[in-house]
Structure formats: structure tokens, C-alpha cells
Amino acid sequence: MSELLPIIQLGNSILRQKASLVENINDERIQKLIDDLMTTVAKANGVGIAAPQVAQSCRLFIVASRPNPRYPNAPEMEPTAMINPKIVAHSTEVVKGWEGCLCVPGIRGLVPRYQEIEVEYTDRNGKLQKQELTDFVARIFQHEYDHLDGIVFLDRLESTLDIITEQEYQKQVINNT
Question: How far apart are alpha carbons 158 and 137 in whole angstroms?
């Protein structure tokens, strides 16, 4: 049975650590963590969540894009566990887009990210997967990947002028689309 995990907040030292490789994907603790992360990201209206966000310093995250109150225009996809992920190639094109983070509640930032990325990861069944991701899903992957290296989206901002509160984001960005 999966459970809702507490999400740590900015300031917790785990968010600034480089996460460890997952050695044994079949370990029941890793499989349970995947299930718990899927439950947690859904309940929190997130589109992705990394293990360090629930105080587990391992190289594992979930990409779970779907429309929700925080991201009403997100594309729908099957929630996917990505273990020991890598970005193997990326476009030269960088696009700024609004991001928030479950560990940084109440704040959004306009973050530059690669428009297209080619990634590799191991799925929860131990199979190596290769994918090309674009647009919003590529943004989610890059955001979660940063968490594995102790980076939060605020570190990627070009200016503090690119920060907005969640309330203003909802008013200005969501209600004007």
C-alpha cells in the first residue's frame, strides 16, 4: 500500500546534496518509494517529484505531467519512474518558462531550460529506456534532474525579477491564457 510522504522545504540540507545512484532497482524499499512518490506527486498537484524532495537522497524521480490546478495546461502522460537518469544530448535552443516547486511553496520563477533533450534512464522494471523529450515534459525532466544534483529552480533564474508569487502567477499567467 502506497503512502503520502512529507515533502521537505527549501532550507533542508538534503535538497542541496548530490543524490546517490540506485544500486538495486528490485529492492522492495526502492519499489515502495516509487509507489509512494507517485501517490505524493498526485496528491500535491505536482507534475514531477524527485526522491530528495521527500528526504531520500537517491537518483530517482517521477515525471507525471497532467492538467491540475497548479498546471492547468500540462499535457497528459502516464506517470513514469526514472531511475539513475542522464541527459545525453540537448538542443541549442533554450526557452524560458514558469516553474514552481513543491519544496518552494508560494513562489514561481521564469526558468531557462533546453527546449529538447535526449535522455536515458532505467525504468522500475530494470530496463534501460531512451527518449526524446520536448517542451513542458523536457522542462519537468530537467527540473527533477536538478534535484538529484542539489539544485533548485531558483538557482537557474537569470534575475530576481523573474520571480513571482503563486497568487500573482494564478492571476496573471493562468487566468490570462
Answer: 21
pLDDT digits (tens, 9 = 90+) for 120-136: 999 999 999 999 999 99
Contact criterion met (CB below 8 Å) for 134 and 113? no
The dihedral through the CA atoms of 32, 34, 39, 101 has a sign that is positive
Angle at 60 between CA 59 and CA 65, to 5 degrees: 140
Q: Is the pLDDT of residue 177 over 60?
A: no
Give the cell for residue 136: 513542458
Predicted TM-score (pTM) of the model is: 0.95
Phi/psi for 72 (5° steps) reads: -65, -20
Strands (E), 102-154: 104-114, 116-122, 128-134
| Best CA proximity match to 45, nearest among 111, 98, 5, 101 | 101
List, in order of start, the domains of the chain with CATH numbers. Answer: 13-174 (3.90.45.10)
Instruction: Please give the positions annotated as active site.
Output: 144
CB 147 within 8 A of CB 59: no
